[in-house]
């Protein structure tokens, strides 16, 4: 039978145990640490009852990922069990899934000091009504992937580490001692065993820490700059500027056609299979244009570079030539699988590329890929023991990529400058692989192929 250092959390290997910690402070104050994993700072409420004999703490942990079993709700109550004292004030702070509460109480008889008696009760349920006492949750997905949720309360986002060795996926987290915590906490455990004893998983292990998710749901490596696969901007003289990300497409691999109606422009692009380990080639198709009945497209120009198409569309008012054209514009007819979805996506001509809806925990596939892979990351474990990785970083010139290794982590960064009427430049960065040894210089060099906003890496085994 397995014996854990802490029965309430199998991942805790060192530090203070238990979901709560109580400590009497000077001047008869009380310090309470409560673990509420998954609860953001704004989702906790502390309430003192009118009689000042009990204090209730309510906390909500939202369902962050669609594979989470349910939302979680917490309730804790602290009561005085004596007749002589009342709570007179409190302060609290919530961070990294931990609530730290300061309570002071006083004796009803001012001539006497307050006592130290109190009672604590805790309750927890998910929204389905199940008792909530599990710090680990996993789900086997239909595509063969495994989804795992781990509770490591108190660990800041930057203090998590995920590694793979001999087919074991290990997660560690360091929670520093804050406020009056009796000590720091260290979590560590193997959480998954892969089907083979590899040091490189065949696909990247994706992580979501806390609730922020990805800066840009269109590309997990985008850290700064305009988000989204497309950007639309109305310029002077009734010209529409459109930026479209087509990673992997060379300059001569795109075709733009004005439909006979002069209201729609179709854009098709082909990204060839550059390396033998690429999953496949990619074909893109998007139809964009006008949704009004008063204007027509009078001309267009475009330029394709570093996996980004920049299109300028000019239009005129055909019903009232003396008037300016309107601002009605079609964002694009999307493809779903092999079927053309003819429900147009109407986008405001000045859609905000920094809109908060473009940030979240779930990555979305490229909506304009008609054939081939739709995601920005692809990896493949080779028979030689090497790992092949493909990353999309559209807009990054060949000389603006950088590959580095530190403590066994292979990191790729890329700087995409603002070109034409782009709202700004874009910065990409991310760890793409973990070597089997924590080295800063691999024994064999990492080979790279950089072309058309895509970087491919052949990472040898250590």
TrEMBL record:
<comment type="similarity">
    <text>Belongs to the small heat shock protein (HSP20) family.</text>
</comment>
<dbReference type="InterPro" id="IPR008978">
    <property type="entry name" value="HSP20-like_chaperone"/>
</dbReference>
<dbReference type="InterPro" id="IPR044656">
    <property type="entry name" value="HSP14.7/HSP23.5/HSP23.6-like"/>
</dbReference>
<feature type="domain" description="SHSP">
    <location>
        <begin position="368"/>
        <end position="462"/>
    </location>
</feature>
<protein>
    <recommendedName>
        <fullName>SHSP domain-containing protein</fullName>
    </recommendedName>
</protein>
<dbReference type="InterPro" id="IPR002068">
    <property type="entry name" value="A-crystallin/Hsp20_dom"/>
</dbReference>
């Amino acid at each position: 039978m397995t014996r854990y250092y802490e029965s309430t959390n199998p991942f805790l290997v060192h530090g203070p145990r238990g979901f709560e910690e109580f400590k009497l402070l000077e001047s008869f104050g009380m310090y309470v640490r409560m673990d509420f994993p998954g609860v953001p700072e704004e989702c906790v409420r502390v309430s003192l009852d009118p009689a000042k004999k009990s204090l209730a703490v309510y906390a909500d942990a939202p369902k962050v990922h669609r594979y989470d079993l349910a939302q979680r709700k917490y309730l804790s109550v602290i009561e005085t069990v004596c007749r002589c004292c009342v709570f007179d004030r409190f302060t609290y702070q919530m961070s990294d899934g931990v609530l730290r509460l300061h309570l002071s109480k006083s004796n009803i008889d001012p001539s006497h000091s307050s006592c130290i008696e109190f009672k604590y009760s805790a309750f927890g349920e998910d929204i389905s009504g199940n008792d909530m006492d599990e710090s680990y949750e996993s789900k086997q997905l239909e595509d063969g992937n495994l989804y795992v949720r781990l509770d490591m309360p108190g660990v800041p986002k930057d203090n998590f580490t995920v590694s793979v060795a001999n087919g074991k996926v290990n997660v560690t987290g360091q929670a520093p001692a804050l406020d009056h915590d009796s000590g720091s906490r260290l979590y560590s455990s193997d959480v998954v065993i892969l089907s083979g004893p590899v040091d490189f998983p065949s696909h990247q292990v994706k992580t979501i820490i806390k609730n922020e998710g990805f800066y840009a749901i269109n590309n997990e490596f985008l850290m700064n700059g305009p988000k989204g696969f497309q950007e639309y901007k109305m310029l002077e003289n009734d010209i529409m500027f459109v930026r479209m990300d087509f990673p992997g497409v060379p300059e001569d691999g795109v075709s733009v056609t004005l439909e006979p109606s002069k209201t729609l422009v179709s854009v098709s692009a082909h990204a060839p299979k550059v390396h033998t380990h690429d999953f496949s080639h990619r074909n893109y198709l998007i139809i964009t244009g006008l949704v009004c009945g008063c204007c027509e497209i009078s001309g267009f120009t475009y330029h394709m570079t570093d996996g980004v198409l920049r299109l300028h569309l000019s239009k005129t008012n055909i019903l009232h030539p003396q008037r300016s054209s309107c601002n009605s514009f079609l964002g694009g007819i999307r493809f779903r699988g092999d079927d053309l979805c003819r429900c147009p996506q109407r986008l405001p001509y000045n859609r905000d590329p920094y809109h908060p809806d473009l940030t979240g925990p779930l990555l979305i596939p490229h909506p304009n890929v008609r054939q081939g892979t739709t995601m920005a990351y692809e990896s493949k474990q080779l028979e030689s023991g090497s790992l092949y990785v493909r990353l999309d970083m559209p807009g990054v010139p060949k000389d603006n990529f950088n590959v580095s290794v530190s403590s066994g982590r292979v990191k790729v960064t890329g700087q995409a400058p603002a070109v034409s009427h782009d709202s700004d430049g874009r910065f990409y960065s991310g760890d793409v692989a973990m070597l089997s040894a924590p080295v800063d210089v691999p024994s064999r060099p990492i080979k790279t192929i950089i072309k058309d906003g895509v970087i491919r890496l052949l990472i040898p085994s250590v």
